[in-house]
């Protein structure tokens, strides 16, 4: 579950370089008084000079950098020695075919910015742009809900920052036009309707043709295994009352049609939101007099996938008015709030950079109309709350428990955000 969280880390490692040019250009144009914010840190952080080779290893290390996830890098660094052996030593790995487009290309950055400017960008990017989503790499001040293992710890040491700066200064060549052209994501491949509604795009539209075909194939879609398990559970008598879901609801194709699109919804009994999984468990405990299924258990995933699939093709339409309104606002605030050691909000990826590429993958809008989804990286079905927890961990934020009120609120906001998109349960995602 956590093996890929460094992908989100890398988004942060270099994404702040997106804002380098704008603040400096604005500062150069203003001549009506002294600047109110610093634009550089001229003094090195350590007595030991930065080492470009160590810096190269840091930014290519998938555990710390790997900046090609977000940025196009030049093929070679132009070292001052002009020795071909040294240049070859800094050549990027030939297998790094796919470069990201979330950040600006890093070619020629060693000519465009000084060490002092780059140092400030790494240490305190918000001194240049308060809206930057790049984390401060050597401070822990002002962070919210940091994952326990990273609390009080900087992302990079002072020496590592000096090493990274030293490497960036070696990048003094323009990228070839062919390389630049190869980094632009194609926008013409996924013009599929009805998976686009007024600018809202289902995750389906970001899939490769092969994976879209996998989702569309009811025999090949691996999520259908859970739907069939859910069908069996629907008809199984259990609990102290020896009843089944079908005892009350009859044929799910009729009684559950359209149910998925309305959840989460306000529950007058508890005076808070309740999602589909929680509604299923209430039926179990109150009607069947059976134990509630644990969140993310195979049985609960199977029943929620089965019930959800009965609404396949119907547009999402949750109620955010009246008593649901404060929960909707709380979910929206969660989506917009920075958190974790990387100081990043959900909105940064899924609103601001949706459609850009992280290496070979395109950042989606994060729509939830396909959940529960079979995620290929998980090799199993998962709920929206598992995805929320995964994303929290990816930015080194403390994940909440499945079923937590804050996640249910977020689920409502996400469902509204995808309003009009058709239910795809069970979806297939990368």
Strand fraction band?
A: 5-15%
Fourth CATH level, the homologous superfamily of the largest domain: Cytochrome c-like domain
Strand order of the largest sheet: 8-7-9
The overall pLDDT average reads 83
Tell me the number of structural domains. 3
Detail the poorly predicted runs: 1-37, 83-91, 177-190
The structural class is: mainly alpha
Terminal Cα span: 13 Å
CA radius of gyration: 25 Å
By DSSP, the count of extended strands is 9
Number of helices: 18
Which architecture of the largest domain per CATH? Orthogonal Bundle
Provide structural commentary.
The chain has 430 residues and is mainly α. It folds into 3 domains: 5-23 and 37-181, Cytochrome c-like domain (Cytochrome Bc1 Complex, Chain D, domain 2, Orthogonal Bundle), CATH 1.10.760; 196-218 and 316-429, Cytochrome Bc1 Complex, Chain D, domain 2 (Orthogonal Bundle); 227-309, Orthogonal Bundle (Cytochrome Bc1 Complex, Chain D, domain 2). It has 18 helices and 9 strands. The strands form 4 sheets. A 3-stranded mixed β-sheet has the order 8-7-9. A hairpin with a 4-residue loop joins strand 3 (265-267) and strand 4 (272-274). The two termini are 13 Å apart. Residues 1-37, 83-91 and 177-190 have low confidence and may be disordered.
């Amino acid at each position: 579950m956590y093996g890929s969280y460094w992908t989100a880390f890398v988004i942060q490692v270099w994404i702040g370089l997106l804002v380098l040019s704008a603040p400096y250009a604005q500062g150069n144009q203003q001549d009506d008084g002294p600047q109110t914010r610093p634009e550089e840190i001229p003094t090195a952080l350590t007595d030991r000079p930065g080492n470009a080779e160590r810096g190269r290893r840091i930014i290519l290390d998938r555990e710390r950098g790997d900046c090609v996830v977000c940025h196009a890098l030049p093929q070679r660094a132009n070292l001052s020695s002009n020795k071909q052996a040294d240049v070859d030593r800094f050549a990027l790995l030939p297998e790094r075919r796919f470069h990201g487009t979330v950040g600006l290309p890093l070619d020629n950055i060693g000519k465009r910015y000084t060490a002092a400017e780059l140092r400030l960008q790494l240490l305190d990017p918000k001194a240049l742009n308060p809206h930057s989503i790049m984390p401060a790499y050597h401070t822990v001040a002002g962070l919210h809900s940091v994952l326990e293992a990273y609390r009080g710890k900087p992302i990079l040491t002072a020496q590592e920052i000096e090493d990274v700066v030293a490497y960036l200064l070696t990048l003094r060549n323009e990228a070839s036009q062919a390389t630049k052209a190869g980094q632009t994501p194609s926008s013409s491949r996924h013009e599929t309707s009805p998976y686009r509604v007024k600018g809202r795009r289902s995750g389906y539209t970001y899939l490769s043709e092969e994976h879209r075909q996998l989702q569309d194939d009811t025999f090949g879609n691996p999520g259908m295994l859970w739907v069939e398990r859910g069908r069996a559970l629907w008809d199984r008598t259990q609990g102290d009352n020896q009843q089944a879901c079908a005892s009350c609801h009859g044929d799910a194709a009729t009684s559950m049609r359209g149910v998925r699109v309305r959840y989460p919804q306000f529950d007058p009994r508890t005076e808070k939101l309740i999602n589909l999984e929680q509604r299923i468990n209430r039926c179990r405990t109150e009607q069947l007099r059976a134990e509630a299924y644990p969140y993310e258990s195979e049985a609960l995933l199977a029943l929620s996938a089965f019930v959800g699939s009965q609404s396949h093709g119907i547009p999402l339409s949750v109620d955010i008015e009246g008593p649901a309104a404060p929960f909707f606002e709380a979910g929206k605030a969660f989506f917009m709030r920075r958190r974790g050691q990387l100081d990043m909000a959900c909105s940064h990826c899924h609103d601001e950079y949706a459609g850009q590429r992280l290496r070979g993958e395109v950042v989606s809008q994060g729509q939830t109309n396909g959940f529960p989804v079979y995620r290929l990286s998980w090799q199993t079905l998962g709920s929206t709350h598992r995805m929320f927890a995964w994303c929290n961990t990816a930015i080194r934020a403390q994940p909440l428990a499945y079923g937590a009120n804050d996640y249910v609120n977020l689920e409502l906001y996400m469902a509204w955000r995808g309003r009009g998109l058709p239910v795809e349960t069970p979806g297939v995602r990368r």
